[in-house]
Design goal:
The protein is mostly helical and 332 residues long. Helices cover 76% and strands 0% of the residues.
Amino acid sequence: MRTTTTTTTDKLPILIGALVLLLVAAVAGVSVGTRTVAPAEIWRAFTAFAGTDDHLVIRDLRLPRTLLGLVIGAALGVAGALVQTMTRNPLAEPGLLGVTAGAGFAINLGVLFGLADSPAMQLVLSVAGCAAAAILVYAVGRSSPLRLVLAGVALSAVLSGVSLGMRLIWPDVLDEYRFWSVGALAGVTGSSQTLPTVVLLLALAGSLVVARPLGVVTLGEDTAQALGAHVARTRTAVLILVTVLAGAATAIAGPIAFVGLMIPHLARRFAGGSTPWLIGFSLVFGPVLLVLADVMSRVLLPTGEVPVAIVTAFIGAPVLIWAVRRYGARSL
């Protein structure tokens, strides 16, 4: 097994570089789009707002969309890091525990019964679906990380199959669901996203708090208990955080795969075996990927935007292959 012995002094420059890259991604998110806006106009949109079309595009469309991309990217990246660390499985992601399928199933039910008619209700349904799936998976597979993953895979298959059957039987469900299921940041900004955004920020803060005890739990149950760690309490807290992070992010933008799988792989190369640093790097790398993917989604095709979930898949697959070939599959 390859080991990394980077110190805090080694990691700080990497973190600073990642934050600079995050700033560049944020600037690109505000500056780049199908409508060309001069840099001077972008600056005036913030310093001397005049209500022109260019200023409205910058302040009312691109800025909120970029901020949303930052928060959702961080949520998906951290959720993936938590899941991989808790299950000690480098291929785990929130979807592998059934939370994404649970959210989709709940949204389908909500559409079928006329309950998913507002972003707030979609948030409630999505988080409720995630929570129900996570509780069921945890109840079945809590005895070991492997059972946890297997239970998640089985439940995801069942819920996805039932959801597909519902959409085939009731075409109206399919018509409503397809707008949510594409996974995109376009058209999801607005005051209705304030509550889920706040929820995500609180969950991200909670993830930083739980990072250190989670790192102790990864040493093994007996060792963790010998060190005075509360294993069951830590796992429960992590499961709740993953549910909230994945559920709220999915409720806002739909299912965006690959971010939660790929980002922890990259972050782990720099974390040096430290769970707090893994969470910290994932917190920065996730939004970099999602915001840059969103920028690409705006300009890839002259005929219109591509859903950001498709772009993350095109970016994520080769990067993940490169990371595995370059560094090998390190056990957690």
